[in-house]
Design brief:
534 residues, six-stranded mixed sheet, 26 helices, 62% helix
């Protein structure tokens, strides 16, 4: 018996060693397969742009390196700038935030970039790096390694962590599609710019304001600005909404001073005649430029004067939710739902899901039924999955079945709603980052920002093309605390996915394809062009 035990022990040990050897060889092979020249030289005297990140920066899923988002950005900038910029794509598959921070000092010294684009966080969800704290002038021990160099790591343990469910693969992440947090300027812009009826999406916009709103929803910021400026001359009766659109477009493109000019116009108009449209436009515009206290003050006065304003009730719900005043948030969302235009299905679905996340702990039945109602309105299963994900700890599978029966749905509605029940069990598995690793990720990104600024480079943060709430929250928080700009990539994809199928933008493994990287690259080029011209 004892000999048998030792034989089993030896077999297990040998198997683990062989597995580790195989993983190391496979990793080395992948490293050589991915290795490539990361520098694309521009014109002499041109600006330098450093892009750091993981596989979404490297361009996994693109048909060639020329179709990664940094390369797309570089092509776009060639037409916008007098001199072609020097591009350094230092993205590398599998990197986490600790890896990026460890390499950054040497990269800054070597390339002396004017801009640094940072997209990171998804790999922290499975590699769970410990926090790396560097002195302001220190260099991490492993920064001598080039970004593409293969690293000797214990890979069997990492494989086991993945196997036992401590991560969620990127494919599942990119199947989520959620409404935006109103606290960020891009989130507020998306939530208001895209409120169009189905007919409005199909028909060609006839007025400059409608065309501006449509272009803003598509992410064409310069085109939106041109149309809104034309609308000011031809549609004076819509000036409040036009200036709201300008505040959103200017803010998203990084032109804060121009955004404040339109905001000042709204302030003056509100002081002269605080009508409903002007009040709504001013509230949204204040939130876009992050003057939240003033926005809340005006919204409270606004709903007292115009209780039928779904927009202002929604805004108050978002702000109460952000402040963890859940009872007040639920009441505000309820009023928004009650006063919403029933001919605007997308808006009604947004409101229902917002309310569901707020009331889930106190009234899980109400939350679940609101998620079902939203799904039946827009039949957007990914958004419903995200909403259900936020409520999963309060909703059991048995309770959900019972509540679904109580709704007495039609057969076709029942089939749609049943899909939510299938998702309840998988949602109980661990996903996302715990508090300690969120803190480490935020610390690493903050240190990257500080090092970029110390080297005279302007950092820019990007979000992923699908919802990763922890990463988005960290980006928005750092943006509010520093001068760093954030590009809401996920918001651009939310808009695109209303018109295109998911497989037109993503590969089966969750990475972007060429069309997806086109969206990312053009969004990055908009920001880079603005910053390099300032």
């Amino acid at each position: 018996m004892k000999k048998r035990f030792y034989r089993i022990l030896v077999c297990v040990f040998v198997s683990v060693v062989l597995l580790e050897v195989c993983l190391q060889i496979a990793s080395l092979f992948v490293a050589y397969a991915y290795d490539r020249n990361e520098l694309t030289p521009g014109d002499e005297g041109g600006k330098s742009i450093l892009c750091i990140g993981d596989s979404f920066t490297y361009g996994v899923g693109a048909s060639s390196p020329d179709n990664s988002y940094p390369s797309v950005m570089n092509k776009e900038l060639t037409d916008r700038l007098p001199l072609r910029p020097n591009l350094i794509n230092a993205g590398w598959p599998g990197q986490n935030s600790r890896d990026l921070l460890a390499k950054l000092e040497n990269q800054l010294e070597q390339h002396e970039p004017d801009l640094v684009f940072i997209l990171i966080g998804i790999n922290d969800k499975w590699s769970m790096p410990n926090e790396l704290l560097l002195e302001p002038t220190s260099v991490a021990p492993d920064t001598a390694e080039p970004a593409s160099q293969w690293k000797l790591r214990w890979r069997t343990g990492r494989l086991l962590l993945w196997f036992y469910g401590n991560i969620r693969p990127a494919k599942n992440d990119c199947e989520d599609n959620v409404e935006n947090n109103a606290g960020s300027e891009s989130g507020m812009a998306d939530a208001t710019a895209n409120r169009q009826s189905p007919q409005a999406e199909i028909a060609t916009p006839k007025t400059p304001m409608d065309r501006g709103t449509s272009l803003l929803a598509k992410g064409d910021l310069q085109g939106a600005i041109r149309e809104f400026q034309l609308a000011l001359q031809t549609q004076p009766g819509k000036s409040a909404k036009i200036h709201q659109g300008l505040v959103q477009a200017y803010s998203m493109s990084g032109s804060r001073e121009l955004a404040l000019k339109s905001l000042n116009w709204l302030e003056d108009e509100y002081a002269r005649e605080p009508g409903r449209e002007t009040t709504e436009a001013l509230v949204i515009s204040l939130a876009v430029v992050r003057e939240m206290d003033r926005a809340v003050e005006i919204a409270r006065k606004g709903v007292a004067q115009f209780p039928e304003s779904s927009t202002m009730w929604w805004f108050l719900g978002e702000e109460y939710y952000r402040r963890a005043q859940l009872t007040d948030a639920e009441a505000a969302y309820d009023r928004a739902i009650e006063s919403a235009d029933k001919d605007d299905p997308d808006w009604n679905a947004i409101l229902l899901r917002c309310c569901a996340r707020t009331c889930a702990e106190r009234d899980p039945e109400k939350a679940f039924k609101q998620i079902v109602a939203a799904l039946l309105i827009d039949q957007d299963f990914p958004k419903s999955m995200v909403a259900l994900d936020t409520c999963r700890k309060y909703i059991s599978s048995d309770a959900a079945k019972r509540w679904l029966e109580e709704l007495s749905l039609k057969p076709d509605e029942q089939r749609i709603a049943q899909a939510l029940l299938v998702s309840l069990d998988p949602l109980s598995s661990k996903s996302g980052l715990d508090e300690d690793h969120c803190r480490a990720l935020e610390s690493h990104v903050r240190q990257m920002i500080d090092r970029c600024v110390a080297h005279g480079a302007q950092p820019v943060l990007l979000t992923y093309p699908f919802p990763i709430p922890e990463v988005e929250a960290i980006c928005n928080r750092l943006a509010s605390q520093t001068s760093v700009r954030v590009i809401g990539i996920r918001e651009r994809f939310d808009v695109a996915l209303r018109r295109q199928k998911r497989d037109e933008l993503f590969m089966p493994d969750g990475h972007c394809n060429d069309q997806g990287y086109q969206i990312m690259g053009k969004a990055a080029a908009e920001m880079a062009s603005q910053l390099l011209k300032e």
